[in-house]
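ingest -> fold -> write
write: protein_1
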Amino acid sequence: MRAYARTDIGKAREMNQDCYYVSKEINNMRLCILADGMGGYNGGEIASRLATASARQYIEERFEKIEPTTENIQNLIREAMNYANKVVYEKSRENEELDQMGTTLEICIMYGHKVFIGHIGDSRIYRIRRNIIRRITTDHSYVEELVKDGTITREEAFYHPKKNMLMKALRVHRKYRARYNCKRFC
């Protein structure tokens, strides 16, 4: 399996608040992490760097110590996301200017021929297989909820004035137990 990461500042921002990490394959495992700081708040770039670094450290320190079953890998991803949330939350409490900082977070562990993901926010993970691109994650955004409810169409969501409003992100709450989407794909 191959993994790629790409970020873009976009047209509306002055600063790219994205941070990512793609490891080399070690012992049949590869780790990929992507975080996108919340643009309208102070410290989005700090939140994304902290989330990426803390999740990476958490997983790399523990992966070799677990039996790599589906359940254990999914639990490791959940725990890493909770740890990253805690780190970002605690940093936000240290400095008043960072009070509302937050970030999306995507974690992908490729082990053997399986892929395990953790997802929160509106950054996305795609799978490309046989030249077919498939979006794996669903945005945790206000407009995605409106589309699911049938209130607006997918086309209307693209131009909606609140299209960037997140319903879930790291640091919005002190704890996030069981709020992350963790899945396994083969």
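write: protein_2
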Amino acid sequence: MGLALILLTSCGNTGGKKTDASAPAEPLSVQQAPPVRHYTAAAVRTYPHDITSYTQGLFFRDGVLYESTGQYGSSTFRIVDLESGKALRRLDFDRKYFVEGSCVLDGELFILTWENKVVFVYDAQTLEYKRSYSYPREGWGLTTDGQQLIASDGSANLYFLDTKCRVRKTLPVRMGKRAVRDLNELEYIDGKIWANVYLTDILVIINPETGYVEATVDASGLFPRSKRNPEADVLNGIAVKDGKVYLTGKQWPHLYEIELKEK
């Protein structure tokens, strides 16, 4: 379906006071940085994944798998049957939009766009369009801790937002002294933020209070680059259900339930 911007309100202003989204929170000193644990991801079970899905957002809600997919002209939001990988229901976006991360908070579905600087909001139950917000930065990944939205924009920052998309906190992400850039698709798991590092097969597990990376996950063994056809793109897509973590990638043929093995 094509989307009309029925209501486009400003995202980033709080009571008329402009929020400086670029101003990072103060990180802990490097001396307080925790040791980083390193894991590999091993496949426990493999499920089909639609190879036309340029995966940008992936999450479970009430046991049901949801996926947002990108690309101009083929961006969608889908309710997906886990066993078959087929879309049970989908929203098709106007070709001018490049859809990115998505999540549900307080009964509403939030969907980012990449360069369009628009956030779409739907009713999470009916998928009926509710409103849109303007957005001051590129949209990449999106998740929630159940209280607020957490977004990435490809930088080394994560942004904590209220449901009107106003920035409440900017969190710089560090591994020791080094800023960790290219943070992409996000998932909140057991009090930590998992993030894909774009263009790599590495995920980082981030403390949401300090911004420090506490662990890395090497997922290169799931779908080795040597086995990928020209259409298959990078790792992107993290979801959790009943304590089990699932990973996939852009136009990958499989979605993997994984377990972590410490290096």
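write: annotation protein_2
The first strand starts at residue 8 and ends at 9.
Residues 32-262 form a domain with the Neuraminidase fold (CATH 2.120.10.30).
pipeline exit 0
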